[in-house]
Design goal:
Blueprint lengths: L2 H22 L14 H19 L9 E6 L2 E8 L2 H12 L6 E8 L6 H20 L9 E5 L2 E8 L2 H12 L6 E8 L2
Parallel strand pairs: 2-3, 5-6
Antiparallel strand pairs: 1-2, 4-5
Length: 190
């Protein structure tokens, strides 16, 4: 794999992770909400996420850009829509082999049928609408939720603070025009 690409990906992920840490440091913890991770653990998770993404990009049998990677305290969540079970199994295998990974959760969904350019455009519009609705709701930490759409089926994934946030995000996504079905791959932070 191209080492410049790996270095760039790692630098971008670290920058994003550090920015999120600085932003989140001033917030107080609400009752019933998962405790925040330390700066060191969050940095470790960012590095782990980058390493898993690099492993997926470096493997020809996985379509790395179809797979979302989230990490919380060493637990890696893989989500998105993939072509076949071989890609699912290979992505899980690769993630488990990455230093810093202590668990892998499979939230990937198999694609059914083929998409047309029109349906891909419709899906990107739906994804944008869902992200906008989540972003507009102050009860949702929408930057912690990944949104992927395929043929009107929306998949929400990531680690959130509470079950109430999951329920709210699912409800908001279901109300977006064009959404046929919502798949929950979100997990409450531990």
């Amino acid at each position: 794999m191209n080492t410049r690409l790996t270095s760039l990906a790692m630098a971008l992920s670290l920058s994003a992770g550090l920015g999120a840490l600085v932003t989140g440091c001033s917030k107080q913890q609400a009752v019933g909400v998962a405790p925040p991770v330390t700066v060191g653990v969050a940095l470790d998770d960012t590095v782990t996420t980058t390493r898993v993404k690099a492993a997926l990009v470096g493997d020809e049998s996985t379509k790395a850009y179809d797979i979302k990677v989230e990490t919380r305290k060493g637990a890696v969540q893989l989500s998105g829509f993939v072509d076949n079970q071989i890609q699912v199994d290979r992505a899980i295998y690769l993630a488990r082999g990455v230093e810093g990974v202590n668990a892998v959760e499979n939230g990937m969904t198999l694609k059914e049928g083929t998409s047309t350019p029109g349906s891909k455009l419709d899906d990107s519009i739906i994804t944008t609408r869902v992200k906008a609705v989540l972003l507009a709701d102050p009860a949702i930490k929408s930057l912690e939720i990944a949104v992927v759409t395929r043929k009107g089926e929306v998949q929400l994934s990531g680690f959130v603070d509470s079950r109430a946030q999951i329920e709210r995000a699912l409800s908001l996504a279901q109300g977006v025009d064009g959404v046929n079905f919502v798949v929950n791959e979100m997990r409450v932070k531990k």
